[in-house]
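Re: S-adenosyl-L-homocysteine structure - here you go.
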Amino acid sequence: MSKATLAVLLSRLEPFEQPKTHLEQYPTPSEAAATILWDASQRGLVRGKHVVDLGAGTGILGIGALVLGAKKVTFVEVDQEASQRIERNVALAQERVEGMLGTHEVVIADVTKGVRNLSADLVVSNPPFGTKRKGADVSFLKAALAIAPACYTFHKSVTERHVAAAIVSLGAVVRERFTFTFGLPPTMRQHEKKAHLVAITCFHATKDL
Ligand code: SAH
């Protein structure tokens, strides 16, 4: 499996049918997903590990982890309707790889209320950016670093300083930043009809040992 093959596989997953604006639903671009998962994999954070996808949506990030050899993936999502789509997408991915993917489970929960009893090796998350619900981004970050000692988390680049400060205040260190341009759907911004391009930073953070 190469990074390019992973990106192609992820690009074939089923997107949101009718994205819910209040939940800030939009799929992570497959290239960006492949880039950060590839990095995590190179660092030995995926193969044989338990990975949690917070705000899993279509499941693209967790499914990428399964394809790269994760032992188990827990998809956490508040939207009940996400379950079936995640199951269909895991099945789609399974059809396209040789060998059995690791196990997975879908947990329906509101991440901003804290996720109890979940402990893993790595969290991958493209959370709501807090556009509709202020502070959702930092609540996700808090949950991520409570669940695992390492995470990859996407944020709007304009909030980069605030996110970096939150990471440090949670006792973690920023190891790497990846920058992308996402075309967000028009529904993500009030009063605008056209899709718009937004600078996005994905942080790789780990807890201080
Ligand atoms: N990573 C996914 C979705 C990104 S959009 C993908 O690429 O497909 C953000 C996701 O977070 C949406 O699926 C939305 O339903 C979910 N979400 C929003 N608020 C949430 C909350 N409080 N708890 C859990 N999930 C939430």
